[in-house]
Amino acid sequence: MVFIMKKQLSIVLLLALVMTSAQLMAQKAKHVIFLTIDGFRPDFYLDSEWQTPNLRALMKDGAYAKGVNSVFPSMTYPSHTTIVTGVQPVKHGVYYNNIFTLDGEAKMPYWQDSSIHAPTIWKAAKDKGMTVASLYWPVSADAPVDYNIPDIGGLGDSVRAQYSLPKGFYDEVKKEVFGGADKIDNGKNQNIAQIAAYIIKKSKPELMTIHVFSVDGAQHGVGRSGARVQQAIADADEAVGIIIKALKDAGIYENTVLMIGGDHGFYDVKKSIAPNVWLKEAGLITDLKAGDWKAQFNTVGGSAYLYLKDAADKATANKVKALLEAQPDSVKQYYRIITKEQLKKGGYNPNVAFALTAEHDASFNMANTGNAVKPGKGGTHGHFPDTKNIRTGLIVHGPGIRKGAVIAQMDLKDMTPIMIKLLGIPFSKVDGKVPAGLLE
């Protein structure tokens, strides 16, 4: 009897030890910082031609993905919203960078947190009593965070200051970080990193999301390669170094998980396609402002979305498909139809009849007059996420991460599951999952 009791006691103690160890493992990551480099490609850390010593050091001492599938369209705002919600656009409601207008009027960006129709990791972390910060993240104005300087598109510096948190924080940053500068050059990655460093040293947030974007601008300007892209990714790497130093200075580097990711890859542009020209020639567009149209494409870089004035008008949808099929092979090679069934399966925009994704280094534009096919230049994104060049990347480093883990392929929707697992945050159902083998 004594032997049995001792055995039972040993089992209880062993279970307690295992449970305590598991809890300690879960608690090792006390801070998570997710930094997105807009237009971040896996080759920026996989190929030695790029000057990214900080990224490669994190990769070698942590884990990384060979490719991360974006959303559709593979654009900045819907991608970043999927990162912080763990769900696809059909659930969070941010379909493009800008809200599409059927009358051809100027488009306003999705910029306020109220545009997101799904729970965010920001709110989940706040609900657990954590300090949360966000810098230049799309669709984040009025988000439930402690520190915030939102990405507001082209609405201007005064609007950004108005929506920064806490009240007066934008002016505080200009004074304390930039010596009283009149304006912050947010196009410089290092400047955003300096603001992040200031917050890290001041408040040691448990969760922080940061968005830097000059790499995107460089690739739009010159395409996937060239000195401008080299400089931009080197600047982004330097920004990562600034944040690492701040974490060390604040004494929290050892219990912080750094996630360096992106939103989409990039394609070079050699042809620019205006599908609305064909619709206008066929009498399907007469006057958008007057509401005289039956079908029109919303074009966003490497993709285009067919809207019908009458959503049930299958005859017009079929007529548009016939127009696309009637183009010569020399033109048809530049696009591929994404069916409504494919859109539904992927969790993308449910309000369109079908979509197009660009092929062979083509892009789309909104013109409905002139030549439908013209030479193109620079770079773009927005394509369907099944093509290699449009995939983005991910490096993860810190406690709880399996050193040396290599994820062949994953999705943007997997980012929130990783963060909630590391921080132990209760969260609603997500579309993504933690990739096998990533965590210890």
Tell me what the structure shows.
The chain has 16 helices and 20 strands. The chain is an alpha/beta fold and 440 residues long. It has two domains: 30-266 and 386-423, Alkaline Phosphatase, subunit A, CATH 3.40.720; 271-376, Gyrase A, domain 2 (2-Layer Sandwich), CATH 3.30.1360. Strands 1, 2, 3, 4, 5, 6, 18, 19 and 20 form a nine-stranded mixed β-sheet that branches. It has a four-stranded antiparallel β-sheet with strand order 11-12-14-13. A three-stranded mixed β-sheet has the order 15-8-16, with no helix packed on it. A hairpin with a 2-residue loop joins strand 11 and strand 12. Helix 9 (189-203) runs parallel beside helix 11 (227-249) and helix 10 runs antiparallel to helix 11 (227-249). The longest helix is centred in the first third of the chain and has 26 residues, at 2-27.
Quick summary:
This protein is an alpha/beta fold and 440 residues long. The protein has 16 helices and 20 strands.
Walk me through the topology:
Blueprint: H1 2-27, E1 31-37, H2 43-46, H3 53-61, E2 63-69, H4 76-85, H5 89-92, H6 121-127, E3 132-138, E4 147-151, H7 157-162, H8 169-176, H9 189-203, E5 207-212, H10 214-222, H11 227-249, E6 256-261, E7 267-268, E8 271-273, H12 275-281, E9 285-287, E10 292-293, E11 295-300, E12 303-308, H13 314-325, H14 329-332, E13 335-338, H15 340-346, E14 354-358, E15 362-364, E16 373-375, E17 379-380, E18 392-397, E19 406-407, E20 410-411, H16 415-423
Parallel strand pairs: 1-5, 1-6, 2-19, 2-20, 3-4, 3-5, 8-15
Antiparallel strand pairs: 2-18, 6-18, 7-17, 8-16, 9-10, 11-12, 12-14, 13-14
